[in-house]
Amino acid sequence: MRTYPLRTFVRRVLVVRLGIATAVIAVAVAAAAYVTQKARLENEVADLGRRGVATLVERVRNVMEREGADVVSALREVVGRGEQPVIYRAGRFVLFQVYDRSSTVLVEGVAGDQPDIAQVRTFMASQPLVFPAVGQDHVQAARINDGLLVYTVIPIVDHVGSVAAFARGMFAVSPEVAEQMRWTILLNVFLAAAIVVCVAALLFPVILHLTRRLADYSSHLLEANLETLSVLGSAIAKRDSDTDAHNYRVSLYSARIGQAMGLGRTEMQSLVKGAFLHDVGKLGIPDAILLKPGRLDDGEFTVMQSHVEKGVDIVQRSSWLRDGIAVAGYHHEKYGGGGYPHNLRGEDIPIPARIFAVADVFDALTSARPYKKPLVFDEAMEILEHGRGGHFDPAILDTFAKIARSLYDRYAGRDGEGLRNELAALVEEYFSAGIETLRYGDGR
Fold first, then answer.
1. Fewest Cβ atoms closer than 10 Å to its Cβ: which of 19, 63, 93, 344?
2. What domains can you pick out in the chain, each with its CATH number?
3. At what angle do helices 175-239 and 244-260 cross, to 10 degrees?
């Protein structure tokens, strides 16, 4: 999981993501506006075509009523006058045909001054004849060269309401109207996209404000959780007649080993929490056993061993501390088996617990106790090496051996604010990475 200070998050993630989302939505809305507006304008042109056919049919009916002619004769007379089939301000029919149910073309009208009439005729000839029922029609937009045309098929209904024939034609939209339609579409697309962008611009400061508040709440919550961790650790130390220094040292030893092994952020957090709270279960051990100066008998030792289960029970009650169980519940297991409480071995033991086992024993060996003096570095490393493969994971022991001398010089026997400050810096690195922090995405 990547961790960003808030300003970096806003610059690298929030702005980019909001920009991408705005662009995607703007394109989608603009496309929808384009399709909708184009369909509306095409329907308007189609209506002109319908009105043109209706005008033609009305002329035919007038001829039929005035001269008593049939439909075909009346059509031929009307179209044969040499008039343009139908003309509007928005355009005109440049090619017009009437056919019957047998697909026979009864009459045709052509605008002879149309410059691309051959291509128009080719397009209309490529369209199969259809026979729409009363009240139905067929409309299709087409671009020929630079011109916008609408192909229309409409039934011709006689005075008794029956379909007498079918009219189809190519309506050429005037260049002025076509340009107006284009600009209308572009204007609507621009307005739709602009609205989306404006809404995103208005939402951005709101999102930024909420993000800052979220970061503040997250920071306060983290501080409260870390205080809980510190208080529990101090309570354990006081209960066990020890100081906080042991918890600080083993946490730092463990963290440095984990860093050398390349542990990810999640595992490092689990390691630090578990190392600091590894003996939290001792809060439930009676003083007579916990503080007994002499050797424990078998019954007392069994009670002492129960501090692991007690520690797990305590830690798992907190969702934030729960991942510390990887250490608190397994720090007395041994790599070669024979540990407690589960007698696990090898990689069945969580890696934070295997790391902690090395750190804990090394600190115990190099620290002074009422009953012993601290061992020097070489003596402590010899004892650790003796436990290779039995008590300790050999791979972890090898990693520790490379950095052990510098850690010994840095931490062994130390106490006080220096340890606290260094652990606080490490906690900030892995738990907060800054005062105002947001975590985003996958990763380590």
1. 19
2. 2-185 (3.30.450), 240-440 (1.10.3210.10)
3. 140
- Nearest 5°: the CA angle 395, 316, 422 is 55
Per the CB < 8 A criterion, the answer to whether 153 and 166 are in contact is yes
Residues written for the chain: 444
Nearest residue to 298 (alpha-carbon basis) of 286, 308, 289, 309? 289
At 130, the amino acid letter reads V
pLDDT per position as a tens digit, 113-129? 777 888 998 999 999 99
DSSP label at 141?
E
Residue 140 — left, alpha, or beta (φ > 0 → left; ψ -120 to 50 → alpha)? Answer: beta
C-alpha angle with apex 307: 301 to 310, nearest 5 degrees? 145
Judge if the upstream peptide bond of residue 341 is cis by omega within 30 degrees of 0: yes
* Long-range Cβ contact pairs of 183-187 (< 8 A, separation 24 or more): 184/37, 184/41, 185/34, 185/37, 185/38, 185/41
